[in-house]
Design a protein that fits this description.
The structure holds three protein chains of three kinds. Chain A is mostly helical. Chain A has ten helices and two strands. Chain A has a domain at 2-145. Chain A is globular. The two termini of chain B are 31 Å apart. Chain B has helices at 2-30, 32-55, 66-77, 84-100, 111-122, 124-127, 150-157, 164-169, 178-190, 196-212, 219-228, 232-240, 250-271, 276-283, 285-312; strands at 129-130, 147-148. By secondary structure, chain C is mainly α. Chain C contains ten helices and no strands. Chain C has helices at 2-12, 15-19, 23-29, 33-60, 69-91, 93-99, 103-107, 110-125, 132-160, 172-189. The radius of gyration of chain C is 18 Å and the shape is globular. The chains are: A mainly alpha, B mainly alpha, C mainly alpha.
């Protein structure tokens, strides 16, 4: 049971965005439309997956500082073909996303979680865990961008929906901060309730 | 404790009385729509507050009625012709944000200024256009001739063509009666319902800059129009001097009020945008919080010193 | 009045509050209140030195190699990171031992890299800004902006972690919303 939990952790139990607040800049800035979200999902998933897997082959004997630099260089190299492919799939969105596309190469999952979590696992388990961490991010940005696009722009994937009062502020960066904060609280509430139920109403509820 | 609770409820009652008086004046100028707007905001805030307190596992008490005075403050800053839905959404948003920080026990931002700035960022055009006073718009009617506020005219041209009597009675688009505001301020000040330090600080700061950097050709007009436009006096009383937000000690509260006034005056002078004082009050909340932290640290140090002295004795 | 203008400029061009750059780093650092300011000052050093490096890289790279700019920026920050560790080692070994596992957080993050890209983009749009002085000043401004946000967060730290805040919102979610409201006020200013 524990093993299952640890592999699926990144999706729900320890979500990249909602639990640890990692990689939140693209969610706040670009997560206002589904089109942006799709491009971010593609870039984040590709860069993170390939970089973390490639980084796992870096010898552990190297000093910590050198290893971190090598991880960043690997992700910067991975970024180049990912960008070329993105220009084919999402030609208009790439310009709108701007620097956030490049910044995905220095995301916290690569810089922080590699040493803290992934490279402490066996490779097979690491790959599964990594996939679920990536799915966790993808799911959050999809939900956030869907709701923000609907509330702020009155559209779903650029198709107009009949809503007469739009809250355009939710499409702006501050709206992203507030929306993500509210979602984060909701996620924690649901998590604590489910943990409470799973432990048969034990008092060991997370108070974070 | 009981005494403190009682005094808090009297504060709320005093504030409500002054706000209702201002609301009656709005009814006189803008008709029943102003009152309906006020009612909608109050009811929506109250319902949201009840739901939030239940969700937080608390019981709704008379102390939670502060949400109604906050709703009234918001209403008085809005044009009477604003879409009711917008005002309702802003009230829901504000109450949720307030309760997310812990509600009345842990106030961080002034709810009224959060609501106003939220509306400003999402529906700016609806928020800055008013009907002329004495133009009564029906409850379900759409307003016809909308005009810019007196604040906008003053900020962009540096002059206003209103008599002193009109200013005192608030007979200008987007302004409240100066006379009523002054009376409210005096009552709330002497009954200690507002932070005295913050109020004096705001007034001093505004007065100081209105004299040394006048917005119009003569100092008298500069002072007069500065206080009667841009919600300066209204915000000084109900937002900046809110005892829940301002530092407790008058000394620190004075500087908080002073900084807010100076900063907002400078912004109005530079950007010519109206009602900057409300945005600045929100922006300078961290300053108020920092002062509050400082007060707490000083209190703790004093307690520790006293304890040390007793132990030595 | 000059001070006022500078504060307004710092707020309205703040990379965290207006572009959400470095928010993850801010929250990681905010796990410990004492670390927060230290991280902010270290980031300022990296944005300042990194901006100088970015000036030389962006001007030296030919147009056809612009896709490699991220790689070169990452390399330059990596070199700065090593240099910083060496200086810290000789300056104070105890601090070095305590801080060496965290300094990479201040070096490789969206705040530093985002600053470099933002400055480069601005210089491309406005050639007058394409000089070493402008790059360094912009780097310092970005760092000071980060310090400012750290101070804003620190002032509310106790209240955002208070037991009065509902447990689901206590800490990070409350911090996000708090920064969101400040960011909203800044948006209303502009």
């Amino acid at each position: 049971m524990n093993k299952r939990t640890s592999v699926f952790d990144g999706l729900i139990g320890n979500n990249t965005v909602l639990s640890s607040l990692m990689v939140i800049s693209p969610v706040i800035m670009c997560g206002d439309t589904l089109k942006n979200a799709m491009a971010i999902i593609y870039a984040f998933s590709a860069i993170t997956f390939i970089s973390v897997i490639a980084g796992s082959f870096v010898p552990r004997k190297l000093p910590y500082a050198v290893r971190i630099i090598i991880y960043t260089i690997i992700s910067s190299l991975v970024f180049i073909p990912v960008k070329f492919a993105a220009q084919q799939f999402f030609p208009q969105v790439i310009n709108r996303i701007g620097i956030y596309f490049m910044l995905l190469a220095v995301n916290s999952l690569i810089i922080v979680q590699t040493e803290a979590k992934f490279y402490r696992m066996k490779r097979g388990k690491m790959i599964f865990s990594l996939i679920f961490y990536i799915f966790g991010f993808d799911a959050v940005i999809l939900i956030v961008s869907f709701l923000r696009e609907l509330i702020a722009h009155g559209t779903i994937y650029d198709r107009v929906v009949d809503i007469d009062t739009l809250i355009s502020g939710f499409g702006l960066p501050f709206g992203g901060f507030i929306f993500l904060g509210l979602m984060c609280g909701l996620y924690r509430k649901i998590r604590s309730v489910s943990r409470h139920e799973n432990t048969g109403g034990d008092s060991n509820v997370s108070d974070d | 404790m009981q005494k403190k609770l009682k005094s808090e409820r009297f504060v709320w009652l005093d504030i409500m009385i002054t706000l209702i008086t201002l609301e009656i004046m709005q009814f006189f100028y803008y008709g029943a729509r102003a009152v309906v707007l006020c009612g909608i905001c109050a009811v929506v805030s109250l319902i949201t507050e009840i739901i939030c307190t239940r969700l937080m596992g608390r019981h709704f008490t008379a102390d939670d009625l502060y949400c109604i005075s906050d709703a009234l403050i918001v209403t008085l800053m809005l044009p009477a012709v604003i879409d009711f839905k917008i005002a309702g959404i802003a009230c829901v948003f504000t109450v949720i944000i307030k309760n997310e920080f812990g509600g009345r026990k842990n106030m961080i931002f002034s709810p009224a200024s959060v609501a106003y700035v939220f509306m400003l960022t999402s529906w700016r055009s609806q928020l800055i256009m008013y009907t002329e006073p004495h133009v009564h718009t029906g409850i379900s009617e759409k307003a016809g001739n909308l005009v810019s506020s007196a604040s906008h005219v003053f900020n962009t041209t540096g002059k206003l063509n209103f008599t002193d009597f009109e200013i005192l009675m608030g007979n200008m688009a987007g302004s409240l009666s100066m006379l009523l505001l002054v009376v409210s301020a005096v009552i709330l000040f002497f009954r200690s319902d507002i932070s005295k330090g913050a109020f004096v600080g705001t007034i001093t700061g505004t007065l100081f800059l209105a004299c040394i950097l006048p917005m119009c050709s003569n100092i008298y007009d500069s002072v007069k129009y500065t206080f009667s436009t841009n919600m300066v006096l209204f915000a000084s009383v109900y937002i900046i001097s809110d005892r829940r937000i301002a530092p407790k000690h008058n000394y620190y509260a004075f500087f908080y009020g002073f900084f807010t006034a100076v900063f907002s005056y400078a912004l109005v002078a530079f950007t010519q945008k109206e009602n900057m004082i409300i945005i600045v009050s929100l922006l300078l909340t961290p300053v108020a919080l920092a002062f509050r932290n400082l007060e707490k640290n000083i209190e703790l140090l004093e307690k520790a010193e006293k304890k040390g002295a007793v132990t030595v004795e | 009045m000059f001070l006022m203008t500078e504060i307004i400029v710092l707020l309205t061009s703040n990379l965290i509050l207006t572009q959400a750059l470095g928010t993850s780093t801010l929250f990681i650092a905010a796990g410990n209140r004492k670390n927060l300011l230290g991280t902010a000052f270290t980031i300022t050093l990296f944005t300042m030195a990194g901006s100088a490096a970015a000036y030389f890289i962006s001007n030296a790279l030919p147009g056809s190699a612009k896709d490699f700019i991220l790689l070169f920026y990452a390399l330059s920050v990596g070199i700065l990171y090593i240099l910083f560790l060496i200086v810290l080692y000789f300056f104070n070994k105890k601090v070095f031992r305590n801080a060496k596992k965290y300094i990479h957080l201040s070096a490789f993050n969206c705040a530093v890299m985002g600053t470099l890209f933002t400055i480069t983009n601005k210089a491309e749009e406005n050639p007058q800004l394409n000089n070493i002085g402008s790059f360094i000043i912009a780097g310092i401004e970005a760092g000071i902006g980060f310090i400012l946000v750290s101070l804003i967060l620190m002032s509310a730290y106790k209240r955002l972690n208070s037991k009065d805040v509902p447990s689901a919102f206590r800490g990070f979610p409350a911090m996000l919303i708090y920064l969101g409201i400040i960011s909203m006020a800044i948006y209303a200013l502009t």
